[in-house]
Amino acid sequence: MNRSPWKIPACVILASLALAPRPAQAQDIVGKVIAGYQGWFSVKGDGSPVGSLTKREGNYHGNFECYPDMREFPDSEQFANPNKWGPLPNGNPSKTFASDRDFTIKRHVGWMKQYGIDVAAIQRFGDVYSDITYKYQKNDVTTKMMRACEKTGVKFYIEYDASGSGGGGWGPDWVASIEKDWTNFAVGQRIAASPAYARQNGKPVVELWGMGLDGNNISKDPQQWLALVRWFQSHGYYVIGGVPTGWNGQGGFHDMLPGFDDVYLACNAINPWAVGRFSGADGADRYAASNLKPEAAWCKQHGIDYIPCVYPGTSFFNSNGKTKNIIPRVGGTLMWAQFANLRSLGLKTCFVSMFDEYNEATQIAKSAEDPSFTPTDHWFLWLDADGISLSSDFYLRLTHDGANMIKGRTPLTRTLPTKPWNDLLATSFESGQPAASSPDAAYNKSPRNIADAQCAVTSDKAQSGSASLAYSGTASGGAATYCYYKVFDVTNSPKTITPNTLLYYWIYPEQDNGRYAGVDILFTDGTTLRTSKCVDQNGHPLRPSAGHGGEIPLGAWSVVTSRLGSLAGKKIRKVWVAFDRPGAKGEYRGYIDDIRISN
Fold first, then answer.
1. Which residues, 6+ apart, have CB-to-CB distance to 303 below 8 Å?
2. In the predicted model, what is the mean pLDDT of residues 486-510?
3. Residue 296 — φ and ψ, nearest 5°?
4. Rounded to whole angstroms, how far apart are CA atoms 419 and 455?
């Protein structure tokens, strides 16, 4: 985007501020699931404005409490941070995503669409006023979010965080700073005019967070807040007030300020913050009785929409060094209790805090399942921290299930229905798990032109746990040189591919020939994965004979990930680990681990 200072003619600003409501019947907030989106992570070398800074070596908000699951990110979209994090348990350098990347944003918005999140609330902080580099970065992220939302049907809106309105980031006249920022960016760059920009009652939406909060460096002047609310409304906007817990005196909380009643009454909607205010299902139930029920009644009485907050848990140890896992997720039961309470109270709208806040452990986006995903030199809050093994997308699936329940698509249940795992087939070759033991002679007379073909579980190397599958043999050349080892045979109970099916596995080739191995699938219609058009996360065909593009390193573990949705409806009959390199001569050897075919 153009990073020169904005010079917008006054006549254009005046004409554009009062954006015509489009369409008049738009109802993008009430009855919807909203997720807060920070979009604030940068890493040295990621190509972003902040990532190019020498300050903090380009790292911004890199103090992860939970670590992202990086398996779906191509190598070109993963960034090492050796001065911040050590290596992974498998010896590979640890890498993370960067927020100001088209791929990251498209993937995140794609997850929102897939898992039933209707709206993204893009956070906007005072740094955009006080730091020109951060301003460019945040503008980039928001613009890319807009484009991704336009393509997927997910809606978005801007949420102003007023931290810094007490004399910090937003400057001494913070109200004027936010008004100017909105005018120059949201209006001047036509962000709020996007067809994907959320509208309620036909009006574009904006949220103002910190209203009435007794916090450091946040304005405590209700008249300033009221002036800002009325400024937005005078230009035709729908204003959500982001307010503290107990904002109307309920529940015995003490972080709200007196004198804000007129400000709350002026808002179109109220969104109370609840992160860290209770723990466990019992705490969620008490909060529902002390806060949700009376607050919803107050809002209904005054004709104000109510947007309660739902969160999975939180932790700040890597930020403050105090308590690890301070509000445990308890395997999803904390979050599910909140959804169940919303349904029992008839509340169909909610704000999930947050989508991507890995540094405060409130994220629902795909996260590290266990220590095998994370650097070895730091503590992280893994999804199995409470003794329950969960898939990386568990909280996205839980949010999808919760959204269906509060919207009335599924009945009320206080028993968490979300399965810990949603695998079709999986093995890590640990004791008692499926493992290949011999070539599949029933398939094209496998092996062909291979001597001493071996495939067996070993403890020599492992990506996770204590075992993996070792494959080896000696190729003698020829147009057909292959061996297919059967790992799964589900002929009697075929597994159906869905639009959301993913394939994951790890491979460790020991020499060049060893690269020409991988996972293949035989479907009941006689077709195979290798003859499909599916590719891995780096764009390479899923044919063992493609050798993963020759790019995966030797003597190291590499993940292979592929979306199999284009094969939806096909039924899996067999899963193989295969070596296949036409014309190959000499030895091949390597390891495969953690095969998972999952919805």
1. none
2. 95
3. -60, -40
4. 32
Q: Tell me which residue of 556, 494, 501 sits closest to 525, measured CA to CA.
A: 494
Which residue type is seen at 386? D
What 282-288 contacts at long range (C-beta under 8 Å, 24+ apart), as own/partner pairs, is: 283/334, 284/334, 284/337, 284/338, 284/341, 285/337, 285/341, 287/251, 287/341, 288/338, 288/341, 288/344, 288/345
| pLDDT value of position 84 | 83
Q: At how many degrees (to 10) do helices 102-114 and 132-152 cross? A: 40
Which helix (H) or strand (E) element contains residue 147?
helix 132-152
Closest CA to 436 of 344, 536, 505: 505
Q: What is the DSSP string of 224-237?
A: HHHHHHHHHHHTT-
Q: Given CA atoms 160, 165, 169, 173 in this order, what sign does their dihedral have?
A: positive
Polymer length in residues for the chain: 599
Which comes out higher in pLDDT, residue 7 or 138?
138
Q: What is the pLDDT averaged over residues 294-312?
A: 98
H/E stretch holding 476 = strand 468-476
The pLDDT, as a whole number, for residue 24 is 57
Rounded average pLDDT over 533-553: 95
Please say whether the dihedral angle defined by the alpha carbons of residues 571, 573, 576 and 579, taken in this order, is positive or negative. Answer: negative
Q: Over the Cα atoms of the chain, what is R_g?
A: 26
Cα separation of the two ends of the chain = 37
Residues 6 or more apart from 516 whose CB is under 8 A from it? Answer: 544, 545, 546, 547, 579, 580, 581, 584, 588
8 Å CB contact between 190 and 239: no
Alpha carbons 201 and 185: distance in angstroms, whole number: 23
Amino acid in the structure at residue 194: S
The pTM of the full predicted model, rounded to 2 decimals, is 0.92
1: confidence class by pLDDT, cuts 50, 70, 90: very low
- Taking only the tens place, the pLDDT of each residue in 224-251 is 999 999 999 999 999 999 999 999 998 8
pLDDT at position 15 is: 46
Task: Give kind and range of the element (H or E) at residue 10.
Answer: helix 10-17
Tokens of 447: 């092996």
Average model confidence (pLDDT) across the chain: 92
Q: Determine the pLDDT at residue 21.
A: 46
